[in-house]
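Appendix C: a fully annotated inverse folding record. The material below is reproduced so that readers can follow the format used throughout the book. The structure is listed first as tokens, followed by the designed sequence.
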């Protein structure tokens, strides 16, 4: 009886996983409403997420970068660090690795999401995002208020702010991993660079198009609840692509 019960439970779990995977990778439709709320995304992300973007409508044709720098306090005041390309550090964890960690694509995902939501912003809001918002505990509220002063006909600001919040939290972890607790504020730049067009693949003089950056001003630090700065630093600093505070 116990064996039969366990088999039924295992079959039910397997059936749900297959059904959820089908809904996740299939084109969006009303069928997704069978699973209520955001249960589907919470189940699929981060462990089971899949995407057909590698294959259709066309292969991935560009690279994303995420650069971070910080202002750190020193005995002589404050100092601006050099830029560090966090995506290079992350990808080093997966290059030539038989079992790469799933987190190795985290920086690329953050950069892709930020650039996508930024491109949807009206020009007025893009100009505001370039400004600095790091002073005081209300810096995020002041940014929201300023963005709301201009028209947003497609309601794109809320999506961008959600992406910026994630990007700032990620940049904060990167900065603290590299430069330690002396970090006062961060600045980051997401960017995309397309590959040489397929039609020019045989042209030896062909060059990649220019980098398309997302200019963002200085931001106050963001620390999410339940995150571990120590564990992130241990993982991030294991790469040979970066020298962290303990190695400087």
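Designed amino acids, in order:
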């Amino acid at each position: 009886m116990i064996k039969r019960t366990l088999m039924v439970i295992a079959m039910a779990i397997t059936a749900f996983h297959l059904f959820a995977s089908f809904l996740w990778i299939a084109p969006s439709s009303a069928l997704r409403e069978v699973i209520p709320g955001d249960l589907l995304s919470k189940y699929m992300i981060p462990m089971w997420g899949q995407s057909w973007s590698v294959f259709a409508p066309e292969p991935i044709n560009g690279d994303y970068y995420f650069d971070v720098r910080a202002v750190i306090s020193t005995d002589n005041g404050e100092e601006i660090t050099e830029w560090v390309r966090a995506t290079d550090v992350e990808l080093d964890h997966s290059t030539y690795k038989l079992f790469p960690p799933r987190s190795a694509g985290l920086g690329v995902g953050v950069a892709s999401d930020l650039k996508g939501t930024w491109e949807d912003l009206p020009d007025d809001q893009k100009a505001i995002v370039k400004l600095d918002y790091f002073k005081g505990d209300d810096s995020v509220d002041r940014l929201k208020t300023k963005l709301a002063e201009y028209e947003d006909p497609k309601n794109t600001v809320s999506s961008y702010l959600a992406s910026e919040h994630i990007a700032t939290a990620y940049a904060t972890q990167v900065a603290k991993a590299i430069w330690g607790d002396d970090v006062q504020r961060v600045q980051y730049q997401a960017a995309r660079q397309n590959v040489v067009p397929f039609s020019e693949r045989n042209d030896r003089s062909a060059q990649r198009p220019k980098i398309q950056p997302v200019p963002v001003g200085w931001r106050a630090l963001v620390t999410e609840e339940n995150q571990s700065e120590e564990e992130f630093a241990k993982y991030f600093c294991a790469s040979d692509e970066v020298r962290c505070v303990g190695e400087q």
